[in-house]
Write a structure and sequence with these properties.
The complex is a heterodimer of chains A (275) and B (315). Helix content of chain A is 38%, strand content 22%. Chain A has helices spanning 35-50, 79-90, 130-140, 144-151, 165-177, 182-204, 220-230, 243-253; strands spanning 2-8, 12-19, 22-30, 59-63, 75-76, 96-100, 105-110, 116-122, 210-213, 234-235, 264-265, 271-273. The termini of chain A are far apart. The chains are: A alpha/beta (275), B alpha+beta (315).
Chain lengths: 275, 315
């Protein structure tokens, strides 16, 4: 049976087409302004890769923050459910999934069957999301890839005072003015986001194996920082940004067209009483 | 009311609020006993207030640079620009604000919370009980007594939402000078729903989306001002407002935020009237940004009067 899973996130669209569990095609592109349109385009590209037409595909399940906008989908499942299904296929020993996307960071406790047991999410604050890393890379005038690479060369940990992405940008600029080596600033940025993600992960608790997925999982510098913050080994599957789409495809294959998960929404307390 | 001198910003920098300075022509400082100075080096703006025997003689307000001591010198020199006063004529100077430890000409530092409450007491009168200081990178809600003494306060200095930086970022994004945002936010057919994202970074994406949908710019400004007011109301509700209520800091100048905040809270802000030491009002052009520096200068004055500190005057 041929099915497809599509993940429409804040920044990118990912699609996976599978046949009896084997991957036939994978495609991804920026989701842009018109997410519905981007989804159509990426779907057609994946079909072309697989040498198929839309009629060949039995079911399509969508996920992601704009999963509802996918006109050709037969069903929509939440990101956490898609992550759980996708991760368990790739790494069956996974029990904790950390997913860091462009606009969200979530931690999911999963069962050996790939069911969501507990789930915490930060979607209110850009600190602790891929947007934070993008913003800081821009301030450093280097690419995210470059920032990931150089941060691994840093041996010095400088704590960032700012938690907010807006204030963090000013802090990075002032660190540049103080002639702080770029690799140390890069590491500081990764340490800062890892700290935020780590606190979300600790809400659901860490059970081995811990797996990280989402676009930010491709950032090796961040993964190192996260390992340090969590104090446990963290596994990264191949193509971690396609895991949501893969999980949606797995749901499609299983005939699951909808699923509900309860989230614990994490909001950083920003108001404090003065002394 | 007398207009303060404004330096218009370059067209391309929409965030750049007008810097101000003013000298009181009614005061001959040579005849005064004490010259006291407050220098408030904030994260975004630096302010200097020079007082002669407890009356405002001069003030200035400008952007903080990357170096705090340098910013302190610049803002002090700007306040002195049209006078024959020198730094050596200062009897006592107190530094306050985020960069207070880096004010080279100051003999002492006092926290900005204490200074803002004291300054608001002077600017708005002794009836003020709740002061909201809307700063560049933080927001503080302060309860104080009739002498301007701090009783309790709540603050947010972790998140750019509800701070001046948040408004600057928005001004640059929508390409409208920051001081036009307030007035233009009322030039709309209807009051739109507020921006739903709290985070400034996510609010930016939301605004971009609204612009692309063709929502009128003024409506987007209204939506942003309302979101900011909502954010600040959370802080005030946590503190609990006791009237009368006054606002200081840069955002106090943005009526788009202030009017919506009043509406959300159901509380009016106080009229802007300066009080002098003898409780007579004076006609000084009002700049809400200098409240902290005024408080610092007043603390210096009180310390000298009570003989708690010695004059550091060199000339």
């Amino acid at each position: 049976m041929i099915v497809a899973g599509i993940d429409v996130g804040g920044k990118n669209v990912h699609i996976v087409i599978t046949k009896n569990g084997d991957i036939l095609a994978k495609a991804g592109a920026p989701s842009g302004i018109n997410k519905a349109e981007a989804a159509e385009k990426v779907y057609d590209e994946a079909l072309k890769q697989a040498g198929l037409t839309r009629k060949d595909v039995r079911r399509v399940v969508a996920t992601g923050s704009s999963g509802q906008r996918v006109a050709f989908a037969n069903g929509v499942i939440p990101d956490a459910a898609a992550d759980a299904r996708g991760v368990i296929r790739l790494i069956p020993s996974a029990r904790t999934v950390i997913d860091v996307g462009a606009e969200e960071g979530r931690a999911i406790k999963i069962s050996p069957e790939g069911k969501v047991l507990d789930f915490a999410i930060n979607e209110k604050c850009a600190a602790g999301t891929g947007t934070f890393v993008d913003t800081m890379a821009r301030a450093l005038e280097i690419s995210v890839e470059e920032m990931a690479k150089i941060s691994l060369q840093s041996t010095k940990s400088i704590p960032m005072n700012a938690q907010c992405a807006v204030f963090g940008e000013s802090e990075v600029v002032s660190l540049i003015h103080q002639k702080t080596p770029k690799q140390d600033i890069a590491r500081a940025v990764h340490d800062a986001i890892a700290g935020r993600i780590g606190s979300v992960a600790r809400i659901v608790g860490l059970e081995n194996d811990v797996v990280i997925v989402g676009g930010v999982a491709k950032n090796t510098g961040f993964v190192e920082s996260l390992k340090r913050d969590l104090g446990v080994e963290v596994k990264v599957p191949n193509d971690p940004d396609f895991v949501g789409a893969l999980g949606a495809a797995a749901a499609a294959a299983a005939g699951v067209l909808g699923e509900e998960v309860k989230a614990r929404v994490v909001e950083k307390e920003t108001i404090e009483e003065g002394k | 009311m007398v207009e303060a001198k404004r330096i218009e910003p370059e067209k391309a920098e929409f965030w750049r609020w007008p810097e101000t300075y003013w000298v009181n022509p009614a005061i001959d400082w040579h005849k005064g006993k004490f010259v006291t100075v407050g220098v408030d080096v904030g994260s975004v703006s630096s302010k200097c207030v020079i007082m002669v025997d407890g009356a405002v003689y001069a003030y200035s307000s400008m952007r903080t640079g990357s170096d705090s001591p340098d910013s302190a010198w610049k803002v002090v020199n700007w306040a002195l620009k049209d006078t024959d006063m020198k730094v050596d004529n200062f009897d006592y100077c107190i530094g306050t604000g985020y960069g207070r430890v880096n004010v080279p000409m100051a003999q002492q530092t006092i926290t900005e919370i204490a200074c803002h409450a004291r300054g608001a007491n002077f600017m708005y009168g002794p009836e003020v009980r709740t002061v909201l200081d809307m700063g560049g990178q933080d927001c503080k809600a302060i309860r104080c007594d009739d002498r301007g003494k701090v009783l309790k306060f709540m603050m947010n200095d972790k998140c750019a939402a509800g701070t001046g930086r948040g408004m600057e970022v928005f001004a640059d994004l929508i390409r409208v000078p920051v001081w036009e945002i307030g007035p233009r936010s009322f030039q709309t057919q209807k009051e739109p729903e507020m921006i739903s994202s709290t985070c400034v970074v996510f609010a930016k994406s939301e605004v971009v989306g609204l612009l692309q949908e063709g929502v009128p710019e003024n409506e987007i400004m209204a939506a942003y001002c309302a979101a900011m007011a909502h954010r600040i109301a959370e802080l005030l509700n946590r503190l609990g407002i006791e009237e009368k209520f006054a606002i200081t800091g840069g955002i106090a100048k943005n009526e788009g935020v202030v009017k919506r905040l009043e509406k959300e809270l159901g509380v009016k802000t106080m009229d802007r009237v300066w009080f002098n030491k003898d409780m007579r009002t004076s006609k000084i052009p009002f700049d809400t940004m200098v409240a902290g520096a005024i408080g610092a200068a007043l603390f210096a004055q009180a310390m000298l009067e009570r003989g708690r500190v010695k004059s550091a005057r060199k000339a």
